[in-house]
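_Backbone structure tokens_
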Amino acid sequence: MLIHGLWLLLLPIAAASGWAAAKWSQKSDALDDRKALFPKDYLLGLNFLLNEEPDKALDVFLKMVDVDSETVETHLALGNLFRRRGEVNRAIRIHQNLIARPTLSKDIRVQALFALAKDYLSAGVLDRAESLFLELVEMNEQVGESLQCLLSIYQQEKNWQSAIQIAQKINARTGTDMHLPIAHHYCELAELALKTDDYESATRYLKKALSNDSNCVRASLLFGNMLVGKGNYKQAIRHFQHIKDQDPDYFVEAITPLVDSFRALSKETELILYFKEVLKEFPRIPVVVVLSEQIRQWRGDKAAATFVADYVRKHPSIAGVHRLVELQLPLTEGRAKHDLSILHSLTQKLLAAQPSYQCINCGFAGKVLHWQCPSCKRWSSMKPMYTLEVEQDD
């Protein structure tokens, strides 16, 4: 409700009322002083706001600016209040009216410009918002916040080159470490280059991504997949394996292309040896699934089921039970097979209902990996989830 923000506008009245009360015992004409504190239009505007008539209130306050420039702070507060309530057009009217006044002080003009830029940003009028934020940066005013808003604009527009330039300015002007987002911006450019088979540009962008953030998993994944597409499986394997050292949480994303690369080189033995070592450091169900499939192919369902059962006893999870039942089904008959089929269907539904990724910053969850969280806009915060897995001490 609008009433929640009215305290900003009522503060001048509260303060002035206290002053007037103090003066009451000192001057016989205090009543006249107190009346002079509040222009009639100011009180009329507040009355319209309290009665949920914002358009009438807006007209009153805009006319007041023409009468008394000392009320501009109130108008800034009112404009910001409208923007927070989603009434961006009203906020724009107020801030435009302020900026049009030739007698504004520099400080108030800067505040009004910044407020108007935020109005346009909220309204999705990105070109006008961009122009005002750039003007503020040029004026060396509100630099940090303006640069952050510009970065948001360029990311929305997918203008990655400009985003990189602004992120570098943020790093230089404010000291904020921007190497992580810059690395992702280069990855975005690499993905665009790969869509047109421009491997030279993609390679250049990915190297820049890794030079900004040596732990950029996304760059390693893109590098590996690009090399797979070119048939260079040996180098691809190195990039995929490096992900475990960069950020183990994302290693699951490299498992499928890594397995495919080993198999393309007919190196199944090396594959098993590698994943057995990985399992010691990274006891997660995706690794178990890979190993169980190799065991199944070489030694049959029973051996694979025994391997998975040993894992599930140490690391209970719905995904682990699902894989175990999957391997046990071909080994059973009759009623037992029927019961296992029901259990298999149940675990499958449970897994399908769970998100695959979750943001460690804001909690947003979904089935698709977003390198930038759609909710809080943090980069590399969406992590793979190991569904319903419970860690236990050995």
In short: The first strand starts at residue 357 and ends at 359. Residues 182-268 form a domain with the Serine Threonine Protein Phosphatase 5, Tetratricopeptide repeat fold (CATH 1.25.40.10). Residues 40 and 245 are 69 Å apart (CA to CA). The chain is about 70% helix and 0% strand.
